[in-house]
Amino acid sequence: MACLSSEEWGIICDKFANAQNLTDVESKNDPDNDPFRSKYKARELLREIYCSLKSFEAGETEEDSDQRPEEQPVDGQPDEGICRGFSGDSRDGLRAAKLGVVEYYLGINHVETEELSAGQEHLMNCIKQLEKCRVSSENVSLFIHVRNQLGIIWAGRDETDTAQGFLETAESIYQRYMKEDGSPPTDMTEYFTTEEKLLTHQERTKRFELAYTHTMYYLAQVYQNLGETERAATYCHSTLQRQLQLNQFNPIEWALNAATLSQYYITKGRYLEGRHCLAAATVISGLAGEVPSEAAAQESDMESDHREQLRQKRAEIARCWIKYCLNLLQDAKKLLEDTIGELDTDCQEELKRARRHEEEEEEKGRKIALLFGSEDTFDSIASLEEKVQCLFPLDFTEARAVFLVGQNYVAQAKEYFQMDGYVTDHIEILQDHSSLFRALAFFEEDLERRCKMHKRRVDMLEPICNDLNSQYYLLIRRQLMFELAETYNEMLDLKLTLVNRQADTQSLDNHTIKKFNHLCSASAKYFQMFLDSLCSPEGKLPEHLEEEVLRPALVARFRVARLQSRLISSIPPVQLDNLNKSLENYKYVVQYCEAHPEAAPAVETELELSKEMVGLLPLKIERLKARMAVNN
């Protein structure tokens, strides 16, 4: 501004520097009973700067105005409402930008002191000042920063569409500037800095790119809230990449965000990207240092908190690895199973023949994927990726390799999420471990070994299920009951298959019958425990089953009916009792669906078989009664 002397300008610069120091440094030491003391002082200095600029603006002479150069558009046309009016280096444009900077920092000050409405007003005043300017290297950073902040404010009010508008405008400003200019722009702090304290080109570039990184970070959240998950994932991935490039990240928080992003890719079947995110998360989390020993952590609360945070975040990353391995195995199982849930060997051979081409495509895909890391970390990330495949396992050997990686991370996660203190988390990890065994068992051709895998599942889940307090952990107990019931049922089917294979060479011995009946009774017991958990205190099932338990409850009744009829006994009265109980449960399924027709689609197959058995079992029961009468 023409009428400012060097001394007056120096005073303004000193006030601005003091305001920045009060905000960024002194405020950290403010007492709890006056948490905004330094920021209020900074606000007063910013107001004084604003008043000084306005008074100098009013005092500018007409002669000064006459000496201004004629304004000409930079490229002939303004930027359609975003950037219009004056060229970046005009006196009016520079004056407006300086006032805009002060309005911006006043807005931030009010937001940080929890005065959002006043903060929004100052930020909008900044926008109005910028309407007098064309985007240039002098002000483009301010153009982006102010819209980022307004986007944050509106997103915090759940006005997602409004936030989206501000942030997408900031994005378009950045992209146009980089396309048409691209030089390191002036940072906002440099408006009130003496020449000897101006930033280097490298520092200017870093700060500008960081501002745009924030734009992408906020847009990722906006798109997530709008349900645009694909766009949200793309922006999140780019944000993480830029944070690494700019070396502006907290290692453990970055790692957790990358691990969380992997879960999106996994649900979309994009295991290449999911594995890369997890490998990067593991490597970058290592930059946070080693977990301090308990003895060292006891020296200070800060060290203790740091130790706890590192252990927790790394355990959470381990859980994301478990999900990766589990989903990879389960998706491979879906791809390879036939209509009855067994391995389709023809499909398996066809996929193996296509594997070589698929591996070639993987390398091509790696070049397309957004990869993380610098020269220092990329080799470590690539090395970790080599330890687990991202292609579907097609046989037991490949499946076992994936399983072992998952099991290793189960052990890591359980070290932190122990039963004492993290009941729900610990049980969820155990359930994932059980699911890993189940997925691996699909690939095992030896039925005895497959049965042993299911026995491992029982051994890890049964003690937990029986020890849990049903008053506090009812839903978890129901999950465990149902899984245990199904696991015993799978073991029963495997034993039956083995018996059928041996039927030509030997008859059933007492040991086999005893084992068969044990599995049958155990499965029925846990299905019945699940059903009992749905009953009223008087022991009655509700007349109307809630949607979340409708299918499990009807399936449990169907399975109990089937299991009761499969029990082997040489004693006719016991046989009769088992058949009557079986018929009673089949009838329940049929009668419930007749009374509630909307339930039928949920158990279509079970209902059809129940109707068939309701017709057949009475005949079988009558024949048994007739034989009993003859024998008596």
Automatic annotation (TrEMBL):
GO cellular component: cytoskeleton
One biological process term in Gene Ontology: central nervous system projection neuron axonogenesis
Record key words, sorted: Cytoplasm, Cytoskeleton
Region Disordered, residue ranges: 58-88
Predominant place of localization: cytoplasm
Location of this chain's protein in the cell: Cytoplasm, Cytoskeleton
Any one Pfam family match given in the protein's UniProt record, by short name: KBP_C
Family: Belongs to the KIF-binding protein family.
PANTHER family: KIF-BINDING PROTEIN (PTHR46321:SF1), KIF1-BINDING PROTEIN (PTHR46321)
Role noted for this protein: Activator of KIF1B plus-end-directed microtubule motor activity. Required for organization of axonal microtubules, and axonal outgrowth and maintenance during peripheral and central nervous system development.
Protein name: KIF-binding protein
